[in-house]
Amino acid sequence: MTKKPQLTTSAGAPVVSNETTKTAGERGPALLQDYQLIEKLAHQNRERIPERVVHAKGWGAQGTFTVTHDITDYTCADLFSEVGKQTEVLSRWSTVAGESGAADTERDVRGFSLKFYTQQGNWDMVGNNTPIFFIRDGYKFPDFIRTQKRHPKTNLRSPEAMFDFWAAQPESVHQVTILMSDRGIPVSPMHMNGYGSHTFSMWNKEGKRHWVKFHFKTQQGIKNYTNETSEKIIGSTREKYQEELYNAIEEGNFPKWTMYIQAMPEEEAGQQSYNPFDLTKVWPHDDYPLIEVGELEMNKNPENYFQMIENAAFSPSNVVPGIGFSPDKMLQARIFSYADAHRYRLGTHYEALPANAPKNSKVNHYHKDGAMRFFTNDFGNPDAYYEPNQYEGPVADFSVKEPPLRIDGDADRYHQDEVDVDYVQPRKLYEMFSDEQKERLYKNYAAAMGPCSDSVKERWYAVLEKVHPDYAAGVKNAVDSLDTDVNTVPITENTPIEDN
Ligand code: NDP
Ligand code: HEM
Protein backbone atom coordinates (compact mmCIF):
# COMPACT_ATOMS: atom_id res chain seq x y z
CA MET A 1 0.00 0.00 0.00
CA THR A 2 1.37 3.40 -0.91
CA LYS A 3 2.01 5.71 2.00
CA LYS A 4 -0.48 8.58 2.15
CA PRO A 5 1.03 12.07 1.88
CA GLN A 6 1.48 14.06 5.06
CA LEU A 7 -1.29 16.59 5.84
CA THR A 8 0.16 20.08 6.21
CA THR A 9 -0.94 23.56 7.18
CA SER A 10 -1.30 26.02 4.34
CA ALA A 11 2.16 27.20 5.37
CA GLY A 12 3.48 23.69 4.70
CA ALA A 13 4.11 22.43 8.24
CA PRO A 14 2.92 18.94 9.30
CA VAL A 15 -0.50 18.86 11.01
CA VAL A 16 -0.75 16.87 14.27
CA SER A 17 -4.50 16.16 14.24
CA ASN A 18 -7.38 16.97 11.91
CA GLU A 19 -10.08 15.59 14.22
CA THR A 20 -9.40 16.53 17.83
CA THR A 21 -9.47 20.06 19.25
CA LYS A 22 -6.75 20.89 21.76
CA THR A 23 -8.57 21.37 25.08
CA ALA A 24 -7.72 22.31 28.66
CA GLY A 25 -8.60 18.99 30.21
CA GLU A 26 -10.57 16.14 28.68
CA ARG A 27 -13.89 18.01 28.85
CA GLY A 28 -12.61 21.31 27.44
CA PRO A 29 -12.78 24.24 26.92
CA ALA A 30 -10.79 24.66 23.68
CA LEU A 31 -7.46 26.48 23.65
CA LEU A 32 -7.23 29.53 21.38
CA GLN A 33 -3.76 28.46 20.39
CA ASP A 34 -5.23 25.56 18.38
CA TYR A 35 -4.66 27.68 15.31
CA GLN A 36 -5.50 24.91 12.82
CA LEU A 37 -9.07 24.70 14.15
CA ILE A 38 -9.46 28.46 13.64
CA GLU A 39 -7.90 28.28 10.22
CA LYS A 40 -10.13 25.39 9.16
CA LEU A 41 -13.32 27.18 10.26
CA ALA A 42 -12.18 30.50 8.79
CA HIS A 43 -11.48 28.89 5.43
CA GLN A 44 -14.90 27.31 5.33
CA ASN A 45 -16.46 30.73 5.90
CA ARG A 46 -14.69 32.00 2.80
CA GLU A 47 -15.53 29.12 0.44
CA ARG A 48 -18.27 30.98 -1.42
CA ILE A 49 -17.77 33.88 -3.78
CA PRO A 50 -20.60 36.06 -5.13
CA GLU A 51 -22.53 34.16 -7.75
CA ARG A 52 -22.76 35.72 -11.21
CA VAL A 53 -25.41 38.45 -11.14
CA VAL A 54 -26.94 36.71 -14.15
CA HIS A 55 -26.19 33.27 -15.63
CA ALA A 56 -25.42 31.94 -12.13
CA LYS A 57 -26.25 28.28 -12.86
CA GLY A 58 -23.86 26.73 -15.32
CA TRP A 59 -22.03 23.70 -16.68
CA GLY A 60 -18.62 23.69 -18.29
CA ALA A 61 -15.97 21.68 -20.09
CA GLN A 62 -12.60 21.95 -21.79
CA GLY A 63 -11.84 21.08 -25.39
CA THR A 64 -10.40 22.00 -28.74
CA PHE A 65 -11.31 24.08 -31.76
CA THR A 66 -10.01 22.96 -35.16
CA VAL A 67 -10.07 25.11 -38.29
CA THR A 68 -11.56 23.13 -41.19
CA HIS A 69 -12.06 25.93 -43.75
CA ASP A 70 -9.94 28.90 -44.79
CA ILE A 71 -11.42 32.26 -43.74
CA THR A 72 -8.24 34.30 -44.09
CA ASP A 73 -10.05 36.45 -46.71
CA TYR A 74 -12.09 37.74 -43.76
CA THR A 75 -9.69 37.75 -40.84
CA CYS A 76 -6.03 37.83 -39.95
CA ALA A 77 -6.79 36.39 -36.49
CA ASP A 78 -4.04 33.93 -35.73
CA LEU A 79 -6.39 31.18 -34.54
CA PHE A 80 -7.91 31.00 -38.05
CA SER A 81 -4.56 31.32 -39.85
CA GLU A 82 -4.50 27.83 -41.39
CA VAL A 83 -6.70 24.81 -41.93
CA GLY A 84 -5.93 22.19 -39.30
CA LYS A 85 -4.84 24.71 -36.67
CA GLN A 86 -6.06 23.75 -33.18
CA THR A 87 -6.79 26.00 -30.21
CA GLU A 88 -7.61 25.02 -26.62
CA VAL A 89 -11.07 26.15 -25.51
CA LEU A 90 -12.94 26.49 -22.21
CA SER A 91 -16.73 26.49 -22.38
CA ARG A 92 -19.50 27.36 -19.96
CA TRP A 93 -23.22 27.06 -20.64
CA SER A 94 -25.81 28.52 -18.30
CA THR A 95 -29.37 29.56 -17.65
CA VAL A 96 -29.92 33.30 -17.29
CA ALA A 97 -32.32 33.96 -14.44
CA GLY A 98 -31.94 31.16 -11.90
CA GLU A 99 -29.59 31.27 -8.95
CA SER A 100 -26.64 28.90 -8.78
CA GLY A 101 -28.85 26.15 -7.27
CA ALA A 102 -31.62 26.49 -9.88
CA ALA A 103 -32.91 23.40 -11.66
CA ASP A 104 -31.24 22.78 -15.02
CA THR A 105 -34.28 22.12 -17.19
CA GLU A 106 -36.17 25.34 -16.54
CA ARG A 107 -37.58 27.37 -19.45
CA ASP A 108 -35.00 30.10 -20.06
CA VAL A 109 -32.47 31.35 -22.59
CA ARG A 110 -29.15 29.48 -22.29
CA GLY A 111 -25.77 31.17 -22.20
CA PHE A 112 -23.07 29.82 -24.53
CA SER A 113 -19.58 31.05 -23.58
CA LEU A 114 -16.29 30.04 -25.13
CA LYS A 115 -12.76 31.12 -24.24
CA PHE A 116 -10.25 30.44 -27.01
CA TYR A 117 -6.68 30.38 -25.64
CA THR A 118 -5.09 31.64 -28.86
CA GLN A 119 -1.42 32.43 -29.50
CA GLN A 120 -2.35 36.10 -29.57
CA GLY A 121 -4.25 36.11 -26.27
CA ASN A 122 -7.69 34.98 -25.23
CA TRP A 123 -10.71 35.48 -27.44
CA ASP A 124 -14.04 35.15 -25.60
CA MET A 125 -17.24 34.43 -27.48
CA VAL A 126 -19.94 35.16 -24.87
CA GLY A 127 -23.22 34.35 -26.56
CA ASN A 128 -26.53 32.62 -26.09
CA ASN A 129 -28.44 29.72 -27.67
CA THR A 130 -30.54 32.36 -29.45
CA PRO A 131 -29.33 34.53 -32.34
CA ILE A 132 -30.99 37.65 -30.90
CA PHE A 133 -31.86 39.30 -27.56
CA PHE A 134 -34.84 40.89 -25.77
CA ILE A 135 -33.60 44.49 -25.85
CA ARG A 136 -31.20 46.65 -27.84
CA ASP A 137 -30.02 49.33 -25.42
CA GLY A 138 -27.72 48.70 -22.44
CA TYR A 139 -29.74 51.12 -20.30
CA LYS A 140 -32.53 48.57 -20.25
CA PHE A 141 -30.49 45.54 -19.18
CA PRO A 142 -30.61 46.03 -15.38
CA ASP A 143 -34.39 46.61 -15.53
CA PHE A 144 -34.90 43.62 -17.77
CA ILE A 145 -32.92 41.40 -15.41
CA ARG A 146 -34.85 42.75 -12.42
CA THR A 147 -38.04 41.40 -14.03
CA GLN A 148 -36.42 37.98 -14.33
CA LYS A 149 -35.26 37.79 -10.73
CA ARG A 150 -37.29 37.73 -7.49
CA HIS A 151 -39.94 40.28 -6.50
CA PRO A 152 -38.72 42.43 -3.58
CA LYS A 153 -41.73 41.64 -1.38
CA THR A 154 -42.90 38.16 -2.33
CA ASN A 155 -39.35 36.92 -2.99
CA LEU A 156 -40.91 34.97 -5.87
CA ARG A 157 -40.33 35.29 -9.60
CA SER A 158 -42.99 37.47 -11.17
CA PRO A 159 -44.60 36.67 -14.55
CA GLU A 160 -46.49 39.96 -14.13
CA ALA A 161 -43.19 41.88 -14.12
CA MET A 162 -41.78 39.91 -17.06
CA PHE A 163 -44.75 40.46 -19.39
CA ASP A 164 -45.32 44.03 -18.16
CA PHE A 165 -41.74 44.84 -19.23
CA TRP A 166 -41.88 42.93 -22.50
CA ALA A 167 -45.20 44.55 -23.46
CA ALA A 168 -43.50 47.94 -23.07
CA GLN A 169 -40.58 46.74 -25.25
CA PRO A 170 -42.26 45.21 -28.30
CA GLU A 171 -38.86 44.55 -29.92
CA SER A 172 -38.59 41.75 -27.34
CA VAL A 173 -41.27 39.70 -29.13
CA HIS A 174 -38.70 38.03 -31.40
CA GLN A 175 -36.74 36.63 -28.46
CA VAL A 176 -39.86 35.88 -26.37
CA THR A 177 -41.17 33.82 -29.31
CA ILE A 178 -38.02 31.67 -29.22
CA LEU A 179 -38.18 31.44 -25.43
CA MET A 180 -41.79 30.22 -25.49
CA SER A 181 -41.13 27.87 -28.44
CA ASP A 182 -39.72 24.37 -28.19
CA ARG A 183 -36.21 25.81 -27.99
CA GLY A 184 -37.00 27.32 -24.56
CA ILE A 185 -35.99 24.07 -22.81
CA PRO A 186 -33.05 22.31 -24.49
CA VAL A 187 -32.44 18.67 -23.52
CA SER A 188 -28.86 19.53 -22.57
CA PRO A 189 -26.14 22.05 -23.46
CA MET A 190 -25.00 19.51 -26.05
CA HIS A 191 -28.31 19.75 -27.91
CA MET A 192 -28.43 23.46 -28.64
CA ASN A 193 -26.76 25.93 -30.97
CA GLY A 194 -24.66 28.87 -29.85
CA TYR A 195 -24.71 32.33 -31.40
CA GLY A 196 -22.53 35.38 -30.81
CA SER A 197 -25.85 37.24 -31.34
CA HIS A 198 -24.29 40.70 -31.71
CA THR A 199 -22.67 41.81 -34.90
CA PHE A 200 -18.89 41.77 -34.52
CA SER A 201 -16.20 42.56 -37.06
CA MET A 202 -13.27 40.86 -38.68
CA TRP A 203 -10.47 42.35 -40.72
CA ASN A 204 -7.97 40.66 -42.98
CA LYS A 205 -4.29 41.36 -43.51
CA GLU A 206 -5.08 43.88 -46.27
CA GLY A 207 -7.13 45.84 -43.71
CA LYS A 208 -10.50 45.01 -45.31
CA ARG A 209 -13.30 44.87 -42.71
CA HIS A 210 -16.39 42.67 -42.70
CA TRP A 211 -19.20 42.74 -40.16
CA VAL A 212 -19.72 39.19 -38.90
CA LYS A 213 -22.12 37.03 -36.91
CA PHE A 214 -20.91 33.85 -35.16
CA HIS A 215 -22.87 30.57 -35.24
CA PHE A 216 -22.02 27.27 -33.52
CA LYS A 217 -24.38 24.55 -34.72
CA THR A 218 -24.73 21.43 -32.61
CA GLN A 219 -23.76 18.15 -34.27
CA GLN A 220 -25.87 16.29 -31.69
CA GLY A 221 -29.06 17.76 -33.19
CA ILE A 222 -31.35 20.28 -31.54
CA LYS A 223 -33.46 18.47 -28.95
CA ASN A 224 -35.85 20.04 -26.49
CA TYR A 225 -38.12 19.05 -23.63
CA THR A 226 -41.80 19.92 -23.31
CA ASN A 227 -42.95 21.66 -20.14
CA GLU A 228 -44.48 18.39 -18.91
CA THR A 229 -41.29 16.35 -19.35
CA SER A 230 -39.17 19.05 -17.82
CA GLU A 231 -41.43 19.18 -14.74
CA LYS A 232 -41.02 15.42 -14.29
CA ILE A 233 -37.25 15.70 -14.66
CA ILE A 234 -37.01 18.49 -12.12
CA GLY A 235 -39.03 16.28 -9.76
CA SER A 236 -36.33 13.63 -9.93
CA THR A 237 -33.14 15.64 -10.53
CA ARG A 238 -32.31 19.32 -10.59
CA GLU A 239 -28.87 18.61 -12.10
CA LYS A 240 -29.85 16.94 -15.39
CA TYR A 241 -27.43 18.94 -17.57
CA GLN A 242 -24.47 18.45 -15.28
CA GLU A 243 -25.11 14.71 -15.22
CA GLU A 244 -25.58 14.42 -18.99
CA LEU A 245 -22.61 16.57 -19.91
CA TYR A 246 -20.22 15.14 -17.35
CA ASN A 247 -21.12 11.53 -18.19
CA ALA A 248 -20.99 12.06 -21.96
CA ILE A 249 -17.46 13.41 -21.70
CA GLU A 250 -16.32 10.72 -19.21
CA GLU A 251 -17.67 8.05 -21.59
CA GLY A 252 -15.83 9.54 -24.58
CA ASN A 253 -19.00 10.81 -26.31
CA PHE A 254 -17.51 14.22 -26.94
CA PRO A 255 -20.07 16.85 -27.99
CA LYS A 256 -19.23 18.80 -31.15
CA TRP A 257 -20.38 21.95 -32.87
CA THR A 258 -19.66 23.29 -36.35
CA MET A 259 -18.64 26.92 -36.39
CA TYR A 260 -19.89 29.23 -39.13
CA ILE A 261 -19.77 32.95 -39.75
CA GLN A 262 -22.03 35.25 -41.71
CA ALA A 263 -20.03 38.04 -43.30
CA MET A 264 -21.23 41.43 -44.56
CA PRO A 265 -18.78 43.75 -46.37
CA GLU A 266 -18.30 46.92 -44.30
CA GLU A 267 -19.85 49.18 -46.92
CA GLU A 268 -23.07 47.12 -47.15
CA ALA A 269 -24.23 48.08 -43.64
CA GLY A 270 -27.17 50.42 -44.07
CA GLN A 271 -28.44 48.81 -47.26
CA GLN A 272 -30.84 46.48 -45.43
CA SER A 273 -34.44 47.07 -44.36
CA TYR A 274 -33.27 46.37 -40.79
CA ASN A 275 -30.37 47.79 -38.78
CA PRO A 276 -27.62 45.13 -39.02
CA PHE A 277 -26.27 46.23 -35.62
CA ASP A 278 -29.64 45.79 -33.88
CA LEU A 279 -29.38 42.85 -31.49
CA THR A 280 -33.08 42.03 -31.89
CA LYS A 281 -32.52 41.10 -35.56
CA VAL A 282 -30.88 38.19 -37.37
CA TRP A 283 -29.29 38.46 -40.77
CA PRO A 284 -31.42 36.28 -43.06
CA HIS A 285 -29.44 33.29 -44.32
CA ASP A 286 -30.52 33.99 -47.91
CA ASP A 287 -28.84 37.41 -47.76
CA TYR A 288 -25.79 36.34 -45.76
CA PRO A 289 -25.21 32.58 -46.09
CA LEU A 290 -23.37 30.61 -43.43
CA ILE A 291 -19.65 30.20 -44.14
CA GLU A 292 -18.13 27.12 -42.51
CA VAL A 293 -15.07 27.72 -40.33
CA GLY A 294 -14.28 24.80 -38.06
CA GLU A 295 -15.22 22.28 -35.43
CA LEU A 296 -15.48 22.65 -31.68
CA GLU A 297 -15.10 19.49 -29.61
CA MET A 298 -15.46 19.52 -25.84
CA ASN A 299 -13.51 16.52 -24.58
CA LYS A 300 -12.39 17.05 -20.98
CA ASN A 301 -14.14 17.54 -17.68
CA PRO A 302 -12.27 20.03 -15.53
CA GLU A 303 -10.39 18.39 -12.66
CA ASN A 304 -11.82 21.02 -10.34
CA TYR A 305 -15.15 22.58 -11.25
CA PHE A 306 -14.76 25.63 -9.02
CA GLN A 307 -11.26 26.41 -10.24
CA MET A 308 -12.07 26.24 -13.94
CA ILE A 309 -15.79 27.03 -14.25
CA GLU A 310 -16.83 29.16 -11.28
CA ASN A 311 -13.61 31.12 -11.61
CA ALA A 312 -14.01 31.52 -15.36
CA ALA A 313 -14.35 35.14 -16.43
CA PHE A 314 -15.75 35.39 -19.96
CA SER A 315 -15.96 38.87 -21.42
CA PRO A 316 -16.93 40.29 -24.81
CA SER A 317 -14.08 42.77 -24.25
CA ASN A 318 -11.57 39.95 -24.81
CA VAL A 319 -10.85 40.14 -28.53
CA VAL A 320 -7.69 39.39 -30.48
CA PRO A 321 -6.19 41.11 -33.54
CA GLY A 322 -8.38 40.34 -36.56
CA ILE A 323 -11.62 40.23 -34.51
CA GLY A 324 -13.31 43.43 -33.34
CA PHE A 325 -16.51 45.05 -32.19
CA SER A 326 -19.29 46.75 -34.14
CA PRO A 327 -21.29 49.94 -33.56
CA ASP A 328 -23.96 47.90 -31.65
CA LYS A 329 -24.50 50.03 -28.52
CA MET A 330 -25.58 47.00 -26.45
CA LEU A 331 -22.22 45.46 -27.22
CA GLN A 332 -20.45 48.57 -25.91
CA ALA A 333 -22.40 48.27 -22.63
CA ARG A 334 -21.24 44.68 -22.32
CA ILE A 335 -17.63 45.59 -23.09
CA PHE A 336 -17.65 47.61 -19.87
CA SER A 337 -19.88 45.42 -17.72
CA TYR A 338 -18.19 42.01 -17.72
CA ALA A 339 -14.67 42.95 -16.65
CA ASP A 340 -16.22 45.15 -13.96
CA ALA A 341 -18.28 42.16 -12.75
CA HIS A 342 -15.14 40.03 -12.70
CA ARG A 343 -13.17 42.51 -10.59
CA TYR A 344 -16.02 42.42 -8.07
CA ARG A 345 -16.76 38.69 -8.23
CA LEU A 346 -13.22 37.31 -8.48
CA GLY A 347 -10.84 40.14 -7.57
CA THR A 348 -8.48 42.58 -9.21
CA HIS A 349 -6.13 40.01 -10.70
CA TYR A 350 -8.84 37.59 -11.92
CA GLU A 351 -7.11 37.29 -15.30
CA ALA A 352 -4.22 35.49 -13.62
CA LEU A 353 -6.42 32.63 -12.33
CA PRO A 354 -5.82 29.32 -14.13
CA ALA A 355 -9.16 29.45 -16.01
CA ASN A 356 -8.47 32.92 -17.35
CA ALA A 357 -4.71 33.16 -17.76
CA PRO A 358 -3.66 32.97 -21.43
CA LYS A 359 -2.22 29.48 -22.02
CA ASN A 360 -0.56 30.13 -25.36
CA SER A 361 0.62 33.71 -25.21
CA LYS A 362 2.80 35.60 -22.80
CA VAL A 363 1.29 38.20 -20.48
CA ASN A 364 3.23 41.48 -20.31
CA HIS A 365 1.47 44.39 -18.69
CA TYR A 366 2.15 47.26 -16.31
CA HIS A 367 -0.77 46.58 -13.93
CA LYS A 368 1.02 46.14 -10.66
CA ASP A 369 0.01 45.32 -7.12
CA GLY A 370 -3.25 44.67 -5.34
CA ALA A 371 -4.96 41.76 -3.63
CA MET A 372 -3.75 38.35 -4.80
CA ARG A 373 -0.85 39.53 -6.90
CA PHE A 374 0.35 35.93 -7.25
CA PHE A 375 2.21 36.29 -10.52
CA THR A 376 5.32 38.07 -11.70
CA ASN A 377 5.64 40.20 -14.76
CA ASP A 378 8.67 42.29 -13.94
CA PHE A 379 10.22 41.61 -17.35
CA GLY A 380 13.50 40.64 -15.79
CA ASN A 381 14.24 44.23 -14.78
CA PRO A 382 12.64 45.74 -11.66
CA ASP A 383 13.31 49.25 -12.99
CA ALA A 384 10.89 48.68 -15.87
CA TYR A 385 7.74 49.29 -13.83
CA TYR A 386 6.40 52.29 -15.78
CA GLU A 387 6.09 53.20 -19.43
CA PRO A 388 7.80 54.60 -21.44
CA ASN A 389 11.14 53.54 -19.95
CA GLN A 390 14.75 53.27 -21.07
CA TYR A 391 14.88 49.54 -20.20
CA GLU A 392 13.60 46.43 -21.98
CA GLY A 393 10.00 46.83 -20.76
CA PRO A 394 7.26 45.73 -23.16
CA VAL A 395 5.94 48.19 -25.73
CA ALA A 396 2.69 48.43 -27.62
CA ASP A 397 2.56 47.20 -31.20
CA PHE A 398 0.79 49.57 -33.60
CA SER A 399 0.86 46.93 -36.34
CA VAL A 400 -2.06 45.03 -34.76
CA LYS A 401 -4.42 48.01 -34.80
CA GLU A 402 -7.73 47.56 -36.53
CA PRO A 403 -8.42 49.49 -39.72
CA PRO A 404 -10.02 52.92 -39.21
CA LEU A 405 -13.80 53.00 -39.10
CA ARG A 406 -15.69 55.97 -40.51
CA ILE A 407 -18.35 57.12 -38.03
CA ASP A 408 -20.66 60.05 -38.67
CA GLY A 409 -23.75 61.64 -37.17
CA ASP A 410 -24.56 63.92 -34.25
CA ALA A 411 -23.92 62.81 -30.69
CA ASP A 412 -27.41 62.38 -29.27
CA ARG A 413 -29.70 59.92 -27.52
CA TYR A 414 -31.45 58.16 -30.38
CA HIS A 415 -34.66 56.36 -29.48
CA GLN A 416 -35.20 53.05 -31.18
CA ASP A 417 -38.91 52.95 -30.51
CA GLU A 418 -41.11 50.28 -31.97
CA VAL A 419 -40.94 50.15 -35.77
CA ASP A 420 -42.77 47.89 -38.25
CA VAL A 421 -39.54 46.07 -39.03
CA ASP A 422 -39.53 44.75 -35.43
CA TYR A 423 -42.40 42.43 -36.36
CA VAL A 424 -41.05 41.09 -39.67
CA GLN A 425 -38.59 38.51 -38.34
CA PRO A 426 -40.78 37.23 -35.49
CA ARG A 427 -43.54 36.82 -38.10
CA LYS A 428 -41.23 34.81 -40.32
CA LEU A 429 -40.25 32.64 -37.37
CA TYR A 430 -43.88 32.12 -36.33
CA GLU A 431 -44.82 31.16 -39.89
CA MET A 432 -41.97 28.60 -39.93
CA PHE A 433 -43.48 26.69 -37.00
CA SER A 434 -45.55 23.59 -37.80
CA ASP A 435 -49.10 23.38 -36.41
CA GLU A 436 -47.85 21.17 -33.56
CA GLN A 437 -45.06 23.64 -32.74
CA LYS A 438 -47.60 26.46 -32.69
CA GLU A 439 -49.88 24.51 -30.32
CA ARG A 440 -46.98 23.94 -27.94
CA LEU A 441 -45.99 27.62 -28.24
CA TYR A 442 -49.51 28.65 -27.18
CA LYS A 443 -49.53 26.19 -24.26
CA ASN A 444 -46.12 27.35 -23.07
CA TYR A 445 -47.36 30.94 -23.11
CA ALA A 446 -50.46 29.91 -21.17
CA ALA A 447 -48.29 28.30 -18.48
CA ALA A 448 -46.06 31.38 -18.31
CA MET A 449 -48.75 34.09 -18.55
CA GLY A 450 -51.49 32.40 -16.55
CA PRO A 451 -50.77 34.37 -13.35
CA CYS A 452 -50.59 37.77 -15.12
CA SER A 453 -53.22 40.46 -14.66
CA ASP A 454 -55.75 41.06 -17.44
CA SER A 455 -54.19 44.41 -18.31
CA VAL A 456 -50.74 42.89 -18.85
CA LYS A 457 -52.22 40.02 -20.86
CA GLU A 458 -54.14 42.41 -23.11
CA ARG A 459 -51.04 44.53 -23.72
CA TRP A 460 -49.03 41.46 -24.72
CA TYR A 461 -51.81 40.17 -26.99
CA ALA A 462 -51.69 43.55 -28.74
CA VAL A 463 -47.98 43.00 -29.44
CA LEU A 464 -48.61 39.48 -30.73
CA GLU A 465 -51.43 40.79 -32.93
CA LYS A 466 -48.89 42.90 -34.79
CA VAL A 467 -46.74 39.83 -35.40
CA HIS A 468 -49.66 37.73 -36.63
CA PRO A 469 -53.38 37.71 -35.74
CA ASP A 470 -53.30 33.89 -35.48
CA TYR A 471 -50.43 34.14 -32.99
CA ALA A 472 -52.41 36.48 -30.73
CA ALA A 473 -55.60 34.41 -31.04
CA GLY A 474 -53.76 31.13 -30.35
CA VAL A 475 -52.12 32.45 -27.20
CA LYS A 476 -55.32 34.10 -25.96
CA ASN A 477 -57.32 30.90 -26.44
CA ALA A 478 -54.69 28.87 -24.64
CA VAL A 479 -54.56 31.32 -21.73
CA ASP A 480 -58.37 31.40 -21.49
CA SER A 481 -58.71 27.64 -21.57
CA LEU A 482 -55.91 27.25 -19.03
CA ASP A 483 -57.98 29.35 -16.62
CA THR A 484 -60.89 26.95 -17.16
CA ASP A 485 -58.64 23.92 -16.76
CA VAL A 486 -57.25 25.20 -13.51
CA ASN A 487 -60.76 25.63 -12.12
CA THR A 488 -61.77 22.13 -13.11
CA VAL A 489 -58.74 20.27 -11.72
CA PRO A 490 -60.14 18.02 -8.97
CA ILE A 491 -58.95 19.41 -5.67
CA THR A 492 -57.92 15.95 -4.44
CA GLU A 493 -55.06 15.81 -6.96
CA ASN A 494 -53.21 18.52 -5.13
CA THR A 495 -54.31 17.75 -1.61
CA PRO A 496 -51.36 17.11 0.66
CA ILE A 497 -51.21 13.87 2.64
CA GLU A 498 -52.10 14.60 6.26
CA ASP A 499 -49.88 13.25 9.02
CA ASN A 500 -52.11 11.19 11.28
P1 NDP B 1 -33.95 30.60 -43.02
O1 NDP B 1 -35.11 29.73 -43.45
O2 NDP B 1 -32.77 30.64 -43.89
O3 NDP B 1 -33.44 30.23 -41.57
C1 NDP B 1 -34.30 29.73 -40.65
C2 NDP B 1 -33.47 29.36 -39.45
O4 NDP B 1 -34.32 29.34 -38.34
C3 NDP B 1 -32.95 27.93 -39.50
O5 NDP B 1 -31.79 27.85 -40.24
C4 NDP B 1 -32.73 27.66 -38.05
O6 NDP B 1 -31.48 28.25 -37.67
C5 NDP B 1 -33.79 28.49 -37.39
N1 NDP B 1 -34.89 27.70 -36.86
C6 NDP B 1 -35.48 26.65 -37.38
N2 NDP B 1 -36.46 26.22 -36.56
C7 NDP B 1 -36.47 27.04 -35.51
C8 NDP B 1 -37.22 27.11 -34.33
N3 NDP B 1 -38.20 26.23 -34.09
N4 NDP B 1 -36.97 28.07 -33.45
C9 NDP B 1 -35.99 28.97 -33.68
N5 NDP B 1 -35.23 28.96 -34.80
C10 NDP B 1 -35.48 28.00 -35.69
O7 NDP B 1 -34.60 32.00 -42.84
P2 NDP B 1 -33.99 33.32 -42.20
O8 NDP B 1 -32.52 33.32 -42.12
O9 NDP B 1 -34.66 34.42 -42.93
O10 NDP B 1 -34.60 33.25 -40.74
C11 NDP B 1 -36.00 33.15 -40.53
C12 NDP B 1 -36.26 33.27 -39.08
O11 NDP B 1 -35.57 32.21 -38.43
C13 NDP B 1 -35.67 34.55 -38.50
O12 NDP B 1 -36.57 35.59 -38.57
C14 NDP B 1 -35.33 34.14 -37.11
O13 NDP B 1 -36.46 34.32 -36.30
C15 NDP B 1 -35.05 32.64 -37.20
N6 NDP B 1 -33.61 32.32 -37.14
C16 NDP B 1 -32.74 32.85 -38.06
C17 NDP B 1 -31.40 32.65 -37.91
C18 NDP B 1 -30.44 33.34 -38.80
O14 NDP B 1 -29.25 33.46 -38.43
N7 NDP B 1 -30.85 33.78 -39.98
C19 NDP B 1 -30.85 31.81 -36.84
C20 NDP B 1 -31.86 31.21 -36.00
C21 NDP B 1 -33.18 31.51 -36.14
P3 NDP B 1 -30.37 27.46 -36.88
O15 NDP B 1 -29.93 26.36 -37.78
O16 NDP B 1 -29.33 28.47 -36.57
O17 NDP B 1 -31.05 26.92 -35.67
C1 HEM C 1 -23.05 36.97 -17.82
C2 HEM C 1 -23.95 41.71 -18.12
C3 HEM C 1 -26.25 41.04 -22.33
C4 HEM C 1 -24.59 36.50 -22.40
C5 HEM C 1 -23.14 38.30 -17.52
C6 HEM C 1 -22.61 38.92 -16.34
C7 HEM C 1 -22.84 40.24 -16.43
C8 HEM C 1 -23.55 40.48 -17.66
C9 HEM C 1 -22.44 41.32 -15.44
C10 HEM C 1 -21.89 38.18 -15.21
C11 HEM C 1 -20.43 38.06 -15.56
C12 HEM C 1 -19.63 37.30 -14.52
O1 HEM C 1 -19.82 37.52 -13.33
O2 HEM C 1 -18.77 36.49 -14.93
C13 HEM C 1 -24.64 41.95 -19.29
C14 HEM C 1 -25.05 43.25 -19.75
C15 HEM C 1 -25.72 43.06 -20.93
C16 HEM C 1 -25.71 41.63 -21.20
C17 HEM C 1 -24.78 44.56 -19.03
C18 HEM C 1 -26.36 44.05 -21.84
C19 HEM C 1 -26.03 45.34 -21.89
C20 HEM C 1 -25.96 39.77 -22.75
C21 HEM C 1 -26.22 39.24 -24.06
C22 HEM C 1 -25.74 37.97 -24.08
C23 HEM C 1 -25.18 37.69 -22.77
C24 HEM C 1 -26.87 40.02 -25.19
C25 HEM C 1 -25.71 36.96 -25.19
C26 HEM C 1 -25.70 37.29 -26.47
C27 HEM C 1 -24.06 36.25 -21.16
C28 HEM C 1 -23.50 34.97 -20.78
C29 HEM C 1 -23.06 35.10 -19.46
C30 HEM C 1 -23.36 36.46 -19.05
C31 HEM C 1 -23.41 33.73 -21.64
C32 HEM C 1 -22.42 34.02 -18.61
C33 HEM C 1 -20.92 34.00 -18.85
C34 HEM C 1 -20.31 32.81 -18.14
O3 HEM C 1 -20.63 31.67 -18.53
O4 HEM C 1 -19.54 33.02 -17.20
N1 HEM C 1 -23.73 39.26 -18.31
N2 HEM C 1 -25.04 41.00 -20.18
N3 HEM C 1 -25.33 38.79 -21.99
N4 HEM C 1 -23.95 37.11 -20.11
FE1 HEM C 1 -24.51 39.03 -20.15
UniProtKB/TrEMBL annotation:
Enzyme Commission code(s) on record: 1.11.1.6
Keywords, alphabetical: Heme, Hydrogen peroxide, Iron, Metal-binding, Oxidoreductase, Peroxidase
Family: Belongs to the catalase family.
Organism of derivation: Alteromonas marina
Gene3D superfamilies linked: Catalase core domain
Domain Catalase core: 8-395
Stretches assigned to coiled coil: none
Record-level GO cellular component terms: cytoplasm
Name recorded for this polypeptide: catalase
Compositional bias segments (type: Polar residues): 1-23
Residue segments, region Disordered: 1-24
Signal peptide: none
Catalytic residues as annotated in Swiss-Prot or TrEMBL: H55, N128
